[in-house]
C-alpha cells in the first residue's frame, strides 16, 4: 500500500482521537530537551530524566558548563542513563558544538537543511537524535522515522517502510506540508501508540486500526490455519 497525504492525515486523526494531545517534549528549556535526546538513547525516559535531574540540581545543565566538564565527572553524574561513559562523550560533543555555533539561538538561525547537516557531524548524533532536536528544540517540520514509526507503518501495510529511516522520512515529508506542530504531535502520538498498543507483541484487540491493519489480518489467518 502506498503512503498518501490523505492516509497519513487519517492516521494522525485516529491517533489524536484515541490519545489526545501529548504535550511533548517533556522539558522546560531547549538545552534540557537536547540533553534528553542524547541521554534517552537506548534507554527509557525515566532513566534519562534522573540524569537530567542531577545535572539541574548541580547547576550544570548548560552547554557552556558541560563543554568544559571532564568526561569522568560528567559520566558520574549521568550514570542512571546507562552507557554513561559513551553518553558523556556525546553530551559534551553536543555542548561544544553549541558553543562553537554561538549558542542555541544562533544555531537556530541556520536553514533546516544546514542545521541538520551540521548536527549530524556531532559525535553520537545520528538522524533520529538530530531530527528530535530539530522538531522539539527548533520547531522544524520533520518526520522522525524511528523504529516505532517503521514498525507501526509496516504493520499497517505501507511498502515504503522497507527502505529504512531516511527514505521513509523524506517520502512522508514530501506528502505533508503541515507545520512543525503537526510533526511534533504526530511523532509523540506514534510513540504513545507503539508503547501502549503496537508493541513488539501487539495488543491488537484494543487497537483503533484493527479493522485496517494488515498485521492483524495476517495473525488472524495464521491462527485459523493453525486450528485446522
Query: How does the overall form come out from the CA principal axes?
Result: globular
Query: How many individual helices?
Result: 13
Number of strands: 0
Which structural category do the helix and sheet elements fall into? mainly alpha
Task: Outline the structure in words.
The protein has 228 residues and is mainly α. 62% of the residues lie in helices and 0% in strands. The chain contains 13 helices and no strands. It has helices at residues 5-19, 30-39, 45-57, 63-67, 71-77, 84-101, 104-107, 112-119, 127-136, 147-156, 165-175, 180-196, 214-226. The longest helix is centred in the middle third of the chain and has 18 residues, at 84-101. It is globular. The two termini are 30 Å apart. The mean pLDDT is 94.
Summarize the structure.
This protein is an all-alpha fold and 228 residues long. 62% of the residues lie in helices and 0% in strands.
Task: Give the topology.
Layout: H1 5-19, H2 30-39, H3 45-57, H4 63-67, H5 71-77, H6 84-101, H7 104-107, H8 112-119, H9 127-136, H10 147-156, H11 165-175, H12 180-196, H13 214-226
Helix pairs in contact: 1-12, 2-3, 2-6, 2-9, 5-6, 8-9, 10-12
Amino acid at each position: 500500500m502506498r503512503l498518501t497525504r490523505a492516509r497519513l492525515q487519517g492516521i494522525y486523526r485516529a491517533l489524536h482521537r484515541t490519545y489526545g494531545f501529548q504535550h511533548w517534549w517533556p522539558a522546560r528549556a531547549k538545552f534540557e530537551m537536547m540533553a534528553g535526546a542524547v541521554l534517552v538513547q537506548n534507554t527509557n525516559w525515566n532513566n534519562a530524566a534522573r540524569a537530567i535531574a542531577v545535572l539541574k540540581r548541580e547547576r550544570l545543565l548548560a552547554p557552556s558548563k558541560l563543554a568544559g566538564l571532564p568526561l569522568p565527572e560528567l559520566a558520574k553524574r549521568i550514570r542512571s542513563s546507562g552507557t554513561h561513559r559513551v553518553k558523556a562523550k556525546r553530551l559534551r560533543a553536543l555542548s561544544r558544538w553549541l558553543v562553537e555555533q554561538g549558542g542555541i539561538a544562533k544555531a537556530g538561525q541556520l536553514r533546516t537543511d544546514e542545521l541538520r547537516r551540521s548536527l549530524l557531524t556531532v559525535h553520537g548524533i545520528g538522524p533520529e537524535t538530530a531530527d528530535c532536536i530539530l522538531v522539539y528544540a527548533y520547531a522544524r517540520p520533520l518526520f522522525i522515522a524511528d523504529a516505532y514509526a517503521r514498525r507501526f507503518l509496516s504493520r499497517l501495510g505501507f511498502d515504503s517502510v522497507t527502505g529504512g529511516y531516511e527514505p521513509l522520512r523524506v517520502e512522508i515529508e514530501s506528502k505533508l506540508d503541515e507545520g512543525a506542530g503537526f510533526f511534533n504531535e504526530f511523532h509523540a502520538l506514534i510513540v504513545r501508540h507503539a508503547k501502549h498498543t503496537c508493541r513488539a507483541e501487539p495488543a491488537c484487540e484494543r487497537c483503533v486500526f484493527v479493522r485496517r491493519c494488515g498485521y492483524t489480518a495476517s495473525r488472524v489467518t495464521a491462527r485459523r490455519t493453525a486450528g485446522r
